[in-house]
Amino acid sequence: MSGTWAIIVAAGRGSRIGSDLPKQYHRLSDTSILALTLDNFSKHPCVDGILVVIHADDEELFQRECSEFADKVLTTHGGATRQESVLNGLLALESTRPDIVLVHDAARPFTNHDVITNLIHAGTSGKAAIAASPVVDSLKQAADNIILKNVDRNGLWHAQTPQAFPFDIIRNAHLAIKDLSKYTDDAAVAEANGHQISIVTSGKENFKITTPEDLVQATMIVNNRQTKEYKMPKEHQMESRTGFGYDVHCFEEGDHVTLCGVDIPHTKKLKGHSDADVGLHALTDAILGALCEGDIGTHFPPSDPQWKGALSDQFLIFARDRVLARQGKIIHVDVTLVCEQPKIGPNRELMVAKMANILDISPNRVSIKATTSEKLGFTGREEGIAAQAVATIQLPSTD
């Protein structure tokens, strides 16, 4: 599998906009709505690929109005209904087979990156989730413009996109439905196949451009951005940080070593106050370094008896939670183990899965490598194991 892909549904005709030109190709200032949507998703660090579902008649339009993305995204043709178009997109990704798929309307170009991130997080946890905003206006049921009754708005939400799913769940759900025309969104298709859908709160900025009035509002937003009158709220601005960690433990008598959360049979074990997991220790230090919050010894001093024999995954969980507590996210981690023995290769996939589970991120954002020191130094003499780690995180901007 290959990370997170976005399916941008852009095969509709958009007749309510009052034009023969499909609305996704209307320009807001000098950029088409579809190009703005593609730009937004292409700039999200956790989106690994984009597939655009276009109408068979719109090849030339797409090439002209989204020329900067023509060589950067995949395209396929849509069907007679929206859900058929989504199914075509899912089938076009069969060979790529992403972990997570985000299905999104082309006419929602202003989706907040935090919403996308939270949806991906839900999908990575094996759950389906949609962006939605709570209903805040009073609701009335009427006939012939006469109010019949009030409708309780508690628990009511405006469904939006993106809608996030583990790929296999939403593909199988679409294939299981004989008449997709009965369903207005992908969440309904998944629900019809017995899947629960959670909600990620989104805002009014994630509106769908549908009417001429929407087009005017969207044009004003784009113009304000271009003239720098529009500024993203500081709480939504993110900055990237990178931290480095290093750790080493010597061998002592034993029958296994614990590396990156996995017990590996060996003729020795690593000596340490805790379980001496040199990989997790280095990575914990890398994350804490990116946070500028000291190192593992600061928070878990070896002089403290409560950490004697402790599993090192709790140290990494602590570092992970410190990132989350500051409204940040872990983008990528990379651990290099330096040793002659034991062999890391046969255990690498299990280590990646273990670390991804601890950090609550996709396995395709976890790298574990191994090397030797060519028989040089203490690792070459098989006296111990060293580890280096790099962690990339994002935190709300403080500038």
UniProtKB/TrEMBL annotation:
Enzyme Commission code(s) on record: 2.7.7.60, 4.6.1.12
GO molecular function: 2-C-methyl-D-erythritol 2,4-cyclodiphosphate synthase activity; 2-C-methyl-D-erythritol 4-phosphate cytidylyltransferase activity; metal ion binding
Annotated region (2-C-methyl-D-erythritol 2,4-cyclodiphosphate synthase), positions in chain: 241-399
Site (Positions MEP for the nucleophilic attack): R153, K208
InterPro entries noted in UniProt: IspD, IspD/F, IspD/TarI, ISPD_synthase_CS, MECDP_synthase, MECDP_synthase_CS, MECDP_synthase_sf, Nucleotide-diphossugar_trans
Pfam families: IspD, YgbB
Pathway connected to this protein: Isoprenoid biosynthesis; isopentenyl diphosphate biosynthesis via DXP pathway; isopentenyl diphosphate from 1-deoxy-D-xylulose 5-phosphate: step 4/6; Isoprenoid biosynthesis; isopentenyl diphosphate biosynthesis via DXP pathway; isopentenyl diphosphate from 1-deoxy-D-xylulose 5-phosphate: step 2/6
Coiled-coil regions listed in the entry: none
Gene3D superfamilies cross-referenced by the UniProt entry: 2-C-methyl-D-erythritol 2,4-cyclodiphosphate synthase, Spore Coat Polysaccharide Biosynthesis Protein SpsA, Chain A
UniProt site (Transition state stabilizer): R16, K23, H273, T372
Catalytic activity: 4-CDP-2-C-methyl-D-erythritol 2-phosphate = 2-C-methyl-D-erythritol 2,4-cyclic diphosphate + CMP; 2-C-methyl-D-erythritol 4-phosphate + CTP + H(+) = 4-CDP-2-C-methyl-D-erythritol + diphosphate
Transmembrane helix among keywords: no
All residue ranges annotated as the 2-C-methyl-D-erythritol 2,4-cyclodiphosphate synthase domain in the record: 241-393
Keywords: Isoprene biosynthesis, Lyase, Metal-binding, Multifunctional enzyme, Nucleotidyltransferase, Transferase
Keyword check for Transferase: yes
Binding site for a divalent metal cation: D247, H249, H281
UniProt-annotated binding residues for 4-CDP-2-C-methyl-D-erythritol 2-phosphate: D247, V248, H249, H273, S274, D295, I296, G297, T371, T372, S373, E374, F378, R381
Cofactor(s) recorded in Swiss-Prot or TrEMBL: a divalent metal cation
BP-aspect Gene Ontology terms: isopentenyl diphosphate biosynthetic process, methylerythritol 4-phosphate pathway; terpenoid biosynthetic process
Region (2-C-methyl-D-erythritol 4-phosphate cytidylyltransferase): 1-240
Described purpose of this protein according to its UniProt entry: Bifunctional enzyme that catalyzes the formation of 4-diphosphocytidyl-2-C-methyl-D-erythritol from CTP and 2-C-methyl-D-erythritol 4-phosphate (MEP) (IspD), and catalyzes the conversion of 4-diphosphocytidyl-2-C-methyl-D-erythritol 2-phosphate (CDP-ME2P) to 2-C-methyl-D-erythritol 2,4-cyclodiphosphate (ME-CPP) with a corresponding release of cytidine 5-monophosphate (CMP) (IspF).
Similarity comment text for this entry: In the N-terminal section; belongs to the IspD/TarI cytidylyltransferase family. IspD subfamily. In the C-terminal section; belongs to the IspF family.
Name of this protein: Bifunctional enzyme IspD/IspF
Natural source organism: Kiloniella litopenaei
Record gene name: ispDF
